[in-house]
Amino acid sequence: MKNLIFPIFVILIVCFTAQAQDKLDDLLPVRGICLSSPNPEGVDQFVSFIKDELVPLKVNTLVIIIDYGYKFKSHPELTEEDALSTEDVKKIVKVCRDGGIRIIPQINLLGHQSWFQSVGQLLIAYPEFNETPHVPTEGGSTDLKFPNEWGLYCLSYCPLHPEVHNVVFEAVDEIVEVFEADAFHAGMDEVFYLGDDKCPRCQGRDKAELFAGEVTKIRNHLALKDVELWIWGDRLLDGRATGIGLWEASYNNTHRAIDMIPKDVVINDWHYERPDPTAAYFALKGFKVITCPWRFPEVTKTQLHMMVNLKKDATPEVKDNYHGMLHTTWTSAENFIDEYYGKKEVNTGRGGNYVEAFKVLFEEINKLDQ
Amino acid sequence: MKKLLFLIITLFVSLLAPGQENLNKLLPVRGICLSAPDPEGLDQFIDFINKELVPRKINTLVIRIGYKYKYKSHPELSSENALSKKEVKKIVKACENGNIRIIPQINLLGHQSSRNRLGNLLKAYPEFDETPHIIMPEEYAWPNPDGLYCKSYCPLHPGVHKVVFDVVDEIVDVFKTNAFHAGMDEVFYLGNDKCSRCQGRDKAELFAGEVTKIRNHLAQNNIELWIWGDRLLDGRATGIGLWEASYNNTQRAIDMIPKDVVINDWHYERPDPTAAYFALKGFKVVTCPWRFPDVTKTQLHMMVNFKKYATPAVKDNYQGMLHTIWTGSENFINQFYGREEVQSSRGGNWVEAFKILVDEINKLDPDKYLEYEKK
Asked: Measured between beta carbons, which residues in chain A are less than 8 angstroms from residue B280?
């Protein structure tokens, strides 16, 4: 008899837990964190962190910023130093799968093709893809702090260059495959260089159409294999009308693209300093939206509660558009893990503490009464 | 002695003022939308303003006057039971004394009929009818094969604006006001395929064109335009449906109309977060509840919380609350005093909802929402 009671007990517990988990999955389908991919020597620590910390916190989504930090077979010329091998990636894939975490690799497409003076691998290997080849990225008369005389934040590739998609789509396909992913994150935030007046292909074109065209092209490519496209949402918001400004929203007339892109693109709506209610804006437009906090614990908490409250009152058509939370960290994975364990202090330079904010977010999530 | 009394009163008022001022900042609009009374109900209506609305800090009255005024410019449009100029002046004076901004409404574009009754505009000017081929039924039922909810006038008829702008100007003048409410809700007949002028045109452009035309006319005299917001929302994408949002492809008009049009965003059954949508688009928005106390309360708290967290550019777009009453003002007043029961065939109780809204507003601590510091 004793032999029976214990298994029944276990089954019951598992059933109850599973039911609670189901409800949490309904309420917040995405409970995520966005991390940089580790260096090869940091992979084991990264894998342990996922297993020991993320899984128990009920994190179920990991957006991993890989960019060209992978040993691409299709395009070895794009691979950065310190890139991960297939074997490294598979370790991460396995721990995520075992822990019920959906992994979504990110390669920045369109924008973020440089960082300060350092040009990204795509434009090093293919300088002809540069939207603004006339903007100097090294030497010159500037240290490239923003703002500078060229308005250079990051370089972009030209979305109308006839060859660019052949290259980037091969890299995208390879990364989706190695990560065994059913979603891909294309970044596409903070694209300041777009439709440049000196680009022979883009000059004079509608920037909203250029942006929407590129989103749609990437989405259509991924859709052939049933892979979902995730992007950051800033270019789809009017920075002036909303007062949100030029980073978390657009000052370069791209915001009308919101009415031009397919509705199955998942919007990562990042706001760090205020809990902007832009999730309502995206959801009412018909998009799945995920709110992305960063460094202020109180803002993060308010954003979570806004998300679940908006969901609570939503029409059946819109309810599922309120898709959850993705915490962003914006430091290397190694730093974040050290800071998480208190081995290093968080210093954002701009106030707040993203480790605290992350901990508060998941504490609150796990306290929610679904 | 009289002077001393005056001083004391001034002092008292200035002591009270900071709270009031902050409430005005938090909720610039604390309104109610009522139908204009019959001439014989006028005194009671004014009493109600004095005794109930003013003490509750209501500061906005949208009054649905329509053709219930003895128009001098167009006597042919005036309905029976219309108010005289003198009668309107009594209402204006009561509102002035109580610091209530009064905003008269005449339904433009849509709502040119009600059930089986044609409105006065189309009775006098049948040539303005957008759908003359649709005959008014003896017995009205919804839904019906014609999709007739209300008639519309044709916004492209060359004669229509001369007439309606005459009456708009006259009503704005007699109400001594700086805002006019043009209704423009639930416009189902628009760009009809059988209308020789509108056929094949983009309905969003037709709707936006009419809003802009009215706004431009009013702007010449610095008069603000207020409209109901439903045609600017996509009823399908939002799941809000065909009444409180649009199923007839007018929603893109939101990107075509001037940003100084004030949006009255009405939702009765759920606290839809559409105030955020309008505010982020750059519009001043007023949330309009009706009959469910709990929904009303949530809508108020949503409004002030959106405001709390808003950027400086958007903060003032969250303008406040306008409670709507869709029964005769006589009925409402009787129901308010418990002399008559509220009978809403669709549930809820608008008198309760109104009382709760006002109670909650007066319980708010404005400072809590006007200061927000991130941590």
From this structure: 237-238, 241-242, 277-278, 281
